[in-house]
Design a protein that fits this description.
Layout: E1 2-4, E2 7-9, E3 13-16, H1 22-36, H2 43-50, H3 57-64, E4 66-72, E5 75-83, E6 87-93, H4 102-116, E7 121-127, H5 131-136, E8 140-149, E9 152-162
Parallel strand pairs: 6-7
Antiparallel strand pairs: 1-2, 3-4, 4-5, 5-6, 7-9, 8-9
Length: 167
C-alpha cells in the first residue's frame, strides 16, 4: 500500500490478458484517448483512433501480443502489449488513475519480458501525448510518422531504448 496525504492507495497488480478482458480494455482504451489526448489530437483524430476499439480486430491484437493488464483491487485500470520480442504495441491507462505509476509498472514489466526474450532494445510508436513519458524512461526519438486511421492522419514518433544487460 502507498500512503498519500493520509489516504492509503491500493497497490496495483499485474496479470496476463484474458479474452474476457476485451470489453473493459476497450473502455480503458477509449477513455484514455478521449480524456488524455485532447491537447495533441483534434476531435476527428480522436474519434478515428477510438473506433479501433469497436473493431473485432482489437481483441485479436491483444491476444496475438503478450498483453499485460494492470489492476487495482482486482479491477483492470490499464494495459500494455509487447509485439514480438522488442516492440511496445499498446500502452493505455484509465484517466482516473494516471499519475499513480500504472504506466511505469506496465512498461517496467514489458522491458523485463523483452530482455527475457533476448531483445537488446525496445521500440514504441509513441503518441504525441505519450512521448514525454517514454523520453523520461530513456527512449530516444528516431523518426516522426503519419499514419492513416479511419481516414484521419495521426502523428506519432518511433522511439527506441537500449535495454541493459539482462539481470
Amino acid at each position: 500500500m502507498v500512503k498519500t496525504m493520509g489516504q492509503t492507495l491500493p497497490k496495483p497488480g499485474l496479470r496476463p490478458f484474458l479474452p474476457a478482458d476485451v470489453p473493459v480494455l476497450a473502455a480503458i482504451f477509449t477513455a484514455s484517448i478521449e480524456e488524455l489526448t485532447g491537447e495533441d489530437y483534434n476531435e476527428a483524430q480522436q474519434q478515428a483512433w477510438m473506433e479501433a476499439a469497436e473493431d473485432e480486430e482489437f481483441g485479436k491484437r491483444l491476444a496475438a501480443d503478450l498483453t499485460l493488464v494492470a489492476t487495482l483491487e482486482g479491477s483492470p485500470v490499464g494495459f500494455a502489449s509487447l509485439r514480438g520480442a522488442d516492440h511496445i504495441r499498446m500502452l493505455y491507462v484509465h484517466p482516473a488513475v494516471t499519475g499513480q505509476g500504472i504506466a511505469t509498472l506496465l512498461v517496467d514489466a514489458l522491458e523485463k519480458l523483452a530482455g527475457g526474450r533476448g531483445a537488446t532494445g525496445l521500440s514504441v510508436d509513441a503518441s504525441d501525448t505519450a512521448e514525454g513519458f517514454f523520453a523520461k524512461r530513456g527512449y530516444v526519438a528516431m523518426q516522426r510518422n503519419s499514419i492513416s486511421v479511419n481516414d484521419e492522419w495521426l502523428a506519432n514518433t518511433t522511439m527506441k531504448k537500449t535495454l541493459g544487460a539482462a539481470s
